[in-house]
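PROTEIN DESIGN WORKSHEET
SECTION A - STRUCTURE
LENGTH: 912
TOKENS:
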């Protein structure tokens, strides 16, 4: 009896435990009874590895859960289908939902994307997407979380970083098309203009013709391509065809839209000089990744296609992370409400709201999945470090806080990390490249990549074929000062080198995200070993790269369009003095003459006794006419007939002579220049002239040190100039020096260019010889050979530079490229020639004055003769009249008769 009682108690106990305790025990207990079903929809062709990854994740997870007796067990309803077949896709989704699933994981194509979205929205069914079909612009799909991070923003940032203005976008799916459109919009919104040619690949296995067509179409020396393909395999196939069409040479830049660079074999691209960049999401130095990959590499690939490798493809890694995200989301739900799934399972089958088995599509109205909304909230809360980095979703279900490594393959270097891009912070500062090489100037070095910039006369592309008629290749394609300088350096460094003109055509400026453009960027990213370019040494740059001692001293200067030459006019001899000065001289002359007259008239010492015929007369020399004549004689440096007798008169005379001495010598000193030089009247002579006017616009090269100089200058004039330049409309900045010079030439004198003196002098010496350097130097700077921080080349290059300065090599190169190749003769530059002989036209005005004087003299002479005749006749008449009326003829001195006319004579009657 007691045994029976014991048995009953035991059964009751077991029932209590089963009914009460088990649900309280949470998911561990639940999972054993009911594996959680998850639907999976994969593309038959594209998702072989995705499927492997997903199945492998489920199997390893379940194995662990079973071994530990803890955690959920998963079970998948998996279908392979053609994701482009929307009908098949819809019916498969329906089937899977009707069977009862918690969520979907899988790929959609453009065709099936809307269907997947419609189903998941209608039935509140979470969809974990491993593709972006149509979602490059991140639209809001309430029941979708995207496990695949977006790469479009990173691509846009890199395009800006490289400064590409033109590129060919090669893609093989509508997803790619959406992506490039999104990138275009993104760049447009950032006011970055780029010319994109879209190129759809019909068949990735045969892209030769398409590549050749794109190559031919682009006549520029720099060819930029973005390749955006739907599978990793497609990348492999297309990349393998690039060398076959010879597009793996220097000057070709490829940006791959893949985030899985590690699984591509890029080693063979090390030799042609091509530049290939892409992204890497999986971080193989992470211990968790390493541990996973160790297990993954031991898996049998015949059973698990795509596995058994020490690299895991991104699609497989995403599947692993997708399952982990799903597990964590469910875990969160259970933690919040331990019996959340209690009523979901009946005999291991999923029931929805106790109404339907599974979530069938046919119910009208639709009965939404009871756990959908909470599960979506739970997804957005999870955060963990998975194989694909940090997994965390934003409010709209897209990955956030993830990081992509930027991986580049360039000449002589296999794939190496050149930077990082972070979803929230954008492009991060490139890593400082520190290469430890022993300082040894006798050891031949391997090939050095030398970055430079195509700017005259430093580096130019040679025109035409070589001497043998064959097209030029390698470094022979270039010429210029920097090419020659590099050849000279070769002797010191004993190196082979490859000249690489910088992709973005910039000298180098720092972007807000801390990265550098141009030549400086090349050094920072480790894409070049040194830069031999007209690169100005600045404090900012010295912070991030090293400079050897300057090889050329320069200054910021102004270039304007050369004004038409002004021939000296016939009255050029008037020009040494300004009009006001001439006026002052005339006033001085009149004043002095009048004062001399007055002094003479009133000073008793000016009067002297003289005998005049029978009389003694008291006479003074300086009547008004004589006074003017006296001053004129002195002014013309002629000796004087009259001499002041009084002290006052002599003081005036002395002062006037001294005045005349100085005036005449100053005039003579200036005269030659004004008569002989064909002068140019420059509208602008100084920076102040520029700053204080608005008629002539002025600008400079963007992305260089000149811009930085104005941007940071504390000098009020330069600050004022900068304030104008940064807001000027249309923009006054130019991309290259050449563009700036052309703008000066085309703008009819209405644009001045702030340019470094070396280039200023060069262009002024080039046809059509219509530019001129004006004003003084704004600041003094130097060009230096640059290299990455810590480079061991610095010492030897400094030594070589000093040596080349001392032995005249640098001077010789400068003469060769600036003066021997000059096209404008010596009458150019900013100095004007003054070696010219005088022609008649230079001094014609003097002749005019002489002729005028002669004519005037003749006219006045005639007037005098006439007046004198009239006067003599009158005097004769008077004498005759008197003779007739007087009995005593008193002898009348003629002086008396003409009394009043013959001033300054005073007649003293002789006492008889
Ligand atoms: N040589 C300058 C530089 O290195 C170019 C310029 O800004 O004029 O940036």
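SECTION B - SEQUENCE
RESIDUE ASSIGNMENT:
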């Amino acid at each position: 009896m007691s045994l029976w009682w014991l048995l009953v108690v035991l059964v009751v106990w077991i029932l209590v435990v089963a009914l009460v305790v088990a649900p309280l025990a949470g998911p561990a207990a639940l999972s054993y009874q009911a594996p959680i079903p998850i639907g999976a929809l994969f593309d038959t062709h594209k998702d072989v590895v995705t499927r492997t990854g997903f199945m492998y994740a489920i199997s390893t997870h379940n194995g662990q859960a079973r071994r530990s007796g803890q955690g959920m067990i998963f079970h998948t309803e998996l279908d392979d289908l053609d994701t482009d077949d929307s009908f098949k896709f819809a019916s498969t989704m329906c089937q899977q939902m009707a069977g009862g699933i918690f969520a979907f994981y899988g790929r959609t194509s453009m065709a099936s994307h809307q269907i997947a979205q419609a189903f998941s929205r209608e039935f509140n069914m979470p969809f974990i997407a491993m593709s972006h079909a149509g979602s490059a612009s991140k639209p809001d799909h309430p029941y979708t979380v995207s496990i695949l991070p977006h790469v479009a923003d990173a691509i846009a940032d890199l395009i800006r970083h490289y400064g590409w203005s033109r590129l060919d976008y090669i893609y093989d799916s509508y997803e790619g098309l959406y992506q490039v459109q999104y990138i275009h919009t993104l760049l447009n919104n950032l006011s970055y203009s780029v010319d994109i040619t879209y190129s759809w690949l019909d068949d990735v296995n045969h892209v030769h013709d398409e590549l050749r067509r794109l190559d031919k179409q682009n006549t520029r020396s720099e060819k930029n391509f973005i390749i955006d393909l739907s599978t990793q395999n497609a990348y492999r196939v297309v990349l393998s065809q690039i060398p076959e069409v010879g597009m793996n040479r220097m000057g070709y830049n490829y940006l791959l839209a893949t985030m899985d660079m590690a699984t591509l074999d890029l080693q063979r691209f090390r030799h042609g000089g091509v530049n290939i960049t892409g992204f890497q999401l999986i971080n193989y130095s992470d211990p968790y990744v390493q541990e996973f990959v160790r297990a993954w590499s031991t898996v049998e690939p015949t059973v698990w296609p795509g596995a058994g490798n020490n690299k895991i493809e991104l699609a497989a890694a995403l599947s692993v992370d997708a399952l982990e995200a799903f597990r964590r989301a469910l875990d969160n739900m259970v933690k919040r409400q331990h019996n959340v799934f209690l009523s979901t399972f009946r005999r291991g089958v999923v029931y929805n709201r106790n109404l339907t088995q599974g979530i069938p599509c046919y119910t009208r109205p639709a009965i939404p999945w009871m756990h959908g909304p909470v599960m979506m909230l739970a997804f957005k809360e999870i955060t963990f470090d998975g194989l694909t980095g940090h997994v965390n979703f934003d409010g709209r279900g897209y990955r956030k806080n993830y990081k992509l490594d930027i991986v580049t393959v360039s000449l002589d270097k296999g794939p190496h990390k050149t930077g990082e891009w972070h979803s929230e912070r954008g492009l991060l500062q490139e890593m400082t490249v520190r290469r430890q090489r022993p300082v040894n100037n006798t050891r031949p070095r391997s090939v050095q990549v030398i970055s430079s910039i195509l700017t005259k006369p430093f580096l130019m592309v040679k025109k035409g074929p070589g001497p043998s008629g064959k097209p030029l290749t390698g470094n022979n394609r270039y010429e210029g000062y920097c090419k020659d300088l590099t050849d000279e350096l070769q002797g010191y460094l004993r190196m082979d080198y490859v000249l690489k003109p910088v992709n973005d055509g910039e000298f180098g400026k720092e972007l807000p995200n801390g990265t550098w453009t141009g030549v400086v960027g090349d050094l920072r990213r480790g894409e070049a070993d040194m830069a031999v370019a007209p690169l100005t040494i600045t404090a900012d740059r010295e912070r991030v790269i090293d400079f050897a001692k300057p090889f050329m001293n320069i200054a910021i200067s102004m270039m304007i369009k050369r004004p038409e030459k002004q021939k000296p006019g016939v009255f050029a001899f008037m020009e040494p003095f300004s009009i006001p000065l001439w006026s002052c001289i005339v006033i001085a002359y009149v004043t002095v003459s009048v004062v001399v007259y007055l002094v003479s008239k009133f000073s008793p010492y000016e009067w002297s006794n003289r005998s005049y015929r029978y009389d003694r007369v008291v006479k003074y020399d300086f009547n008004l006419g004589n006074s003017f004549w006296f001053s004129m004689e002195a002014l013309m440096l002629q000796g004087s007939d009259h001499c002041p007798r009084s002290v006052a008169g002599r003081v005036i005379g002395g002062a006037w002579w001294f005045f005349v001495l100085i005036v005449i010598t100053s005039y003579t000193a200036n005269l030659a220049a004004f008569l002989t030089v064909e002068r140019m009247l420059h509208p602008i002579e100084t920076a102040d002239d520029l700053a204080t006017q608005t008629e002539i616009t002025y600008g400079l090269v963007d992305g260089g040190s000149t811009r930085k100089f104005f941007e940071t200058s504390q000098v009020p004039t330069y600050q004022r100039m900068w304030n104008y330049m940064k807001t000027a409309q249309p923009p006054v900045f130019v991309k290259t020096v050449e563009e700036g010079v052309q703008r000066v030439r085309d703008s009819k004198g209405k644009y001045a260019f702030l340019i470094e003196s070396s280039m200023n002098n060069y262009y002024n010496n080039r046809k059509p010889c219509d530019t001129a350097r004006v004003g003084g130097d704004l600041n003094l700077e130097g060009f230096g050979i640059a290299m990455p921080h810590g480079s061991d080349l610095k010492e030897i290059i400094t030594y070589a530079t000093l040596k080349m300065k001392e032995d005249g090599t640098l001077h010789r190169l400068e003469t060769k490229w600036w003066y021997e190749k000059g096209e404008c003769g010596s009458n150019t530059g900013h100095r004007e020639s003054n070696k010219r002989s005088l022609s008649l036209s230079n001094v014609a005005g003097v002749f005019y004055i002489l002729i005028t004087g002669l004519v005037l003299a003749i006219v006045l002479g005639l007037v005098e003769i006439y007046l004198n005749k009239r006067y003599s006749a009158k005097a004769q008449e008077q004498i005759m009249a008197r003779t007739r009326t007087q009995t005593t003829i008193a002898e009348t001195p003629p002086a008396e008769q003409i009394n009043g006319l013959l001033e300054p004579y005073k007649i003293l009657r002789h006492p008889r």
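SECTION C - NOTES
The longest helix spans residues 840-885.
Residues 844-909 form one domain.
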